[in-house]
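Lecture 7 notes: from sequence to structure.
We start with the chain below.
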Amino acid sequence: MKSKRILTTFITVLIVAFALSFLAFLGTSIVLKSYNVSLQAQIKQTETDITAVQAEIDTLETQIADLQDRNRVLGMVDGQMKSANTSNIVDLTVTGN
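Predicted structure tokens for the same chain:
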């Protein structure tokens, strides 16, 4: 009788431990899946932002190339002065360190 009671108590403890473990598994699974979805949304937004910034950089690089064009400068000088000495126009190129 006493051994049957100990066995029943032991089985009850095992069932409770299993139930708690299962609930912990389900809870962490739900939280981690939710966190993963949140991270995926942040990644997608960041990629969209990167694409937009890259397009802006490309546009600005094109504008810089147009503004640095020697013929553009000479055209502006010719439009303002008829006797432009093109040897006075110097092309300065900035190089990184």
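Points to note: The longest helix spans residues 2-68. Helices lie at 2-68, 70-80.
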